[in-house]
Specification:
- The structure holds two protein chains of two kinds.
- Chain A folds into two domains: 133 residues, Aspartate Aminotransferase, domain 1 (Alpha-Beta Complex); 241 residues, Aspartate Aminotransferase, domain 2 (3-Layer(aba) Sandwich).
- Chain A contains 13 helices and twelve strands.
- In chain A, α4 links the parallel β3 and β4.
- Chain A is globular.
- In chain B, α1 packs parallel to α2 and α3 runs antiparallel to α4.
- Helix content of chain B is 24%, strand content 30%.
- Chain B folds into three domains: 189 residues, 3-Layer(aba) Sandwich (Rossmann fold), CATH 3.40.50; 60 residues, Adenine nucleotide alpha hydrolases-like domains (SH3 type barrels, Roll), CATH 2.30.30; 80 residues, Elongation Factor Tu (Ef-tu), domain 3 (Beta Barrel), CATH 2.40.30.
- Chain B is an alpha/beta fold.
- Classes of the chains: A alpha/beta, B alpha/beta.
- The interface between A and B is medium-sized, with 27 and 19 residues.
């Protein structure tokens, strides 16, 4: 069976350029930290990769700190900046990915951080007045502000420019998790004014297990992983040359193609949304239609269980998600939808379709050929009773 | 058929799913998340013992080559099984949560959802046999392996539930199932059998009840009283720690006058009185049952056998019923039978039905 893959926000296929760059390095010997010729060759590949990423994101090469992925980069930013700044408060949002929420929870619980998760409106847009008010109460106590660039579940873009402006007025650094944004919308590190930015390989057509925290040179970050000090003494561990080469090729290619990608994918997505609405008139699109990622289409199907829909679609070869893939396994009501004001039942009745660089018209057609009867079937199985 | 295999992460349900797939059914595996115990930073995440079992079930499904999902049934399980367990103990009775789970969760909430989603049946690793009788009804019989027979905990299933169930292990013995699991490369082949109550991880029922019931406990202590003399022999710390027939944990300082051990004969939750006496006083030969459930045709009178606890003995009995309540006359007396336990009624190897024991009595003069 040829699967219809509508889960690009969970992970997207590797780009040929990334596969090529990665495999080319797999057979090369050389630790980038070694001083001999093989080491120097590996070092050159890593540094050129760093420069390619820096150019794509408009940051300085020295600001790119390679990590094992988005989760590590988020942890490094939050814990590292909290510890180095030695101030008690952290401001973030209630719709962050678990890679941000869980470290914040830990910092609050084990490190006495005062964490404030700011509210969002029904379209998942950060409440800037709440941020302003939170900043103005004892701004000197705030270690950092962390606001995601775009939400991974519903796709809503966050007002990063406004966040930076508000925080900068008090000299407070801003971190943003831009894992979903890079390659989908324009991301310019320098112009955005953020101090630290998370990205990861496998969401941009690169390999798994590699990512980066882009962080301003002036900002001190306490390391989480101690060892050889390979990455600016902020992050230790033998540098993964092949993964970094593949990662850089992917970032470069997706950023270069971002504008065209946006036009093509958002048109396809709009067709998917219109089609689903025509077939399931009471389906509700979650998120901010005026301001969202091009590939996201996150629906609420009243009277259905999201995991029933997922299972029925899976059995028909259509792959999607009930939300963030990290919640998969044991289904639970999405914290993002709850923060948007959905009831538990509404949150459980949601499904995310996400398009990416390999998506085609036939993927959308396949979904539209199936979604009507599947929703009907899931509705017969019923929503779980309210708890 | 499109069938849904409930996979606990143990060896039996894994082999049952594999056999169903091999028989040509279109099998989808599910693991039921039944625990609410949050042990993660993610609010509402299910932690505790179920994560590892869930991973084992997932690996087994991978090896068999079937799709696999986790179904969150923790709210249903809590409301129907855990709450019932607590309130029954608080009322001085001794429930069997496995029967309750089969009646309300596995062959009800799960089965209903499966049927609605387009499945034809639920497959489990229970040891029991299904066959079609001469009247066309599905009959449930004891398993071939009497040491593993689980027809007792399935005695609550009705004809409609049985008609949508598959028990592929009923004709096998456990050793063969284990070696088959090994042959099929199912990693769970050597996993130990599960025992005790799944939601009480450490097996300390009394401690669990004390903690969970809290203010809802009927009492936090009372007298231990001798059943013939009425003498107060000691104190206890709450009746929910006791069940009829229990000998251990009474902590009566003095031996009985006849030097014989004493057993719990009766529990009175309101006054907090635990009555104790000699083993002979545990013997009963009359049982009244309520909430009867029938696998097929309701008998008005039956000379058959009853089983009164999981893996308990068969007692020859005469059962009469109006369909809802049952009266059981035991030809072979039983000991230590507590209200709340299930009496499962058999005609030979065939399960006829079951009832929840509401009262017991002793009529005959025995030695």
């Amino acid at each position: 069976m040829n699967n219809v893959y509508l889960d690009h926000a969970a992970t997207t296929p590797m780009l040929p350029a990334a596969v090529e760059a990665l495999t080319e390095q797999l057979t090369n010997t050389g630790n980038p930290s070694s001083l001999h010729a093989s080491g120097r060759h590996a070092r050159r590949v890593v540094e050129e990769s760093r420069e390619r990423i820096a150019q794509a994101l408009n940051c300085r090469p020295g600001e790119v700190v390679f990590t094992s992925g988005g989760t590590e980069a988020d942890n490094l930013a939050l814990k590292g900046i909290f510890w180095s700044r030695q101030r008690p408060r952290i401001l973030s949002t209630s719709i962050e990915h678990h890679a941000v929420l869980d470290p914040l929870h830990w910092l609050g619980h084990d490190e006495d951080a005062e964490v404030t998760l700011l509210p969002v409106d029904e379209l998942a847009r950060l409440d800037l007045d709440a941020l302003r008010a939170a900043l103005e109460t004892e701004p000197d106590d705030v270690a950092l502000v962390s606001v995601m660039w775009a939400n991974n579940e519903v796709g809503t873009l966050q007002p990063i420019t406004d966040v930076v402006e508000l925080a900068a007025a008090h000299g407070i650094p801003v971190h943003t998790d831009a894992v979903q944004a890079v390659g989908s919308v324009p991301v310019d590190f320098a112009a955005s004014g953020v101090d630290a930015l998370t990205l990861t390989g496998h969401k941009v057509g690169g390999p798994f297990g590699v990512g980066a925290l882009v962080v301003r040179r002036e900002l001190e970050v306490t390391p989480l992983v101690h060892g050889g000090g390979q990455e600016r003494d902020i992050r230790s561990g033998t540098i993964d040359t092949p993964a970094i080469a593949g990662f850089a090729a992917a970032v470069e290619a997706t950023v270069k193609g971002q504008a065209d990608h946006h036009v093509r994918i958002s048109a396809l997505r709009d067709e998917l949304v219109a089609g689903v609405r025509a077939l399931v008139p009471d389906a509700i699109l979650n998120g901010d239609p005026a301001n969202m990622l091009p590939g996201h289409a996150h629906f609420r199907f009243p009277g259905c269980e999201g995991d029933s829909l997922l299972m029925l679609l899976d059995a028909r070869g259509i792959e999607c998600s009930t939300g963030s893939a990290c919640n998969a396994g044991v289904p639970q009501a999405s914290h993002v939808l709850l923060a948007m004001g959905c009831s538990d039942a509404e949150a459980r009745g949601s499904l995310r379709f996400s398009l990416g660089h390999t998506s085609t018209q036939s993927d959308v057609d396949a979904l539209l050929a199936t979604i009507g009867p599947v929703v009907e079937r899931a509705r017969a199985a019923g929503a779980r009773k309210a708890v | 058929m499109r069938v849904l295999a409930a996979m606990s992460g143990g060896v039996d349900s894994a082999v049952a799913a594999a056999r169903a797939a091999e028989a040509g059914h279109d099998v989808t595996g599910i693991h039921l998340a039944l625990s609410r115990n949050p042990k993660s930073y993610r609010s509402g995440a299910r932690g505790c013992c179920t994560i590892e079992d869930s991973n084992d079930a997932r690996r087994a499904a991978d090896v068999i080559g079937i799709p696999f999902y986790v179904w969150d049934m923790s709210d249903e399980f809590h409301d129907n099984v855990v709450e019932d367990f607590m309130s029954e103990y608080a009322a001085g009775r001794t429930p069997n949560p496995c029967l309750r789970c089969n009646e309300k969760i596995k062959f009800a909430a799960v089965l209903d959802r499966a049927l609605a989603l387009g499945f034809d049946a639920v497959v489990t690793g229970h040891y029991a046999q299904l066959e079609t009788g001469s009247d066309g009804l599905i009959e449930m019989h004891r398993a071939v392996d009497m040491g593993k027979d689980q027809s007792y905990v399935l005695g609550v299933l009705t004809q409609d539930q049985l008609a949508h169930s598959l028990f592929p292990l009923g004709d096998s013995v456990k050793d063969d199932v284990r070696s088959e699991a090994e042959r099929r490369d199912l990693m769970v082949a050597n996993k130990p059998d599960s025992h005790d109550i799944c939601f009480i991880a450490d097996g300390d029922n009394a401690g669990w009840l004390k903690e969970k019931l809290g203010d809802r406990a009927p009492n936090d202590g009372g007298d231990i009283v001798d059943h013939t003399t009425g003498e107060v022999l000691g104190q206890h710390e709450g009746t929910t720690a006791y069940t009829i027939g229990q000998r251990r944990g009474l902590r009566i300082g003095r031996p009985a006058s006849d030097g014989k051990p004493r057993f719990v004969l009766d529990i009175e939750p309101v006054s907090g009185t635990v009555t104790v006496g000699p083993r002979e006083a545990l013997r009963i030969d009359r049982i009244s049952g309520i909430r009867a459930r029938w696998c097929g045709t309701v008998p008005s009178r039956l000379e058959g056998t009853v089983q009164l606890r999981a893996h308990g003995a068969e007692h020859r009995a005469i059962v009469t019923t109006d369909g809802a309540d049952v009266e059981i006359e035991l030809l072979d007396p039983a000991e230590g039978i507590a209200p709340g336990q299930a009496a499962v009624i058999y005609d030979g190897t065939r399960v006829v039905g079951s009832a929840t024991i509401s009262a017991t009595a002793r009529t005959s003069v025995t030695a």
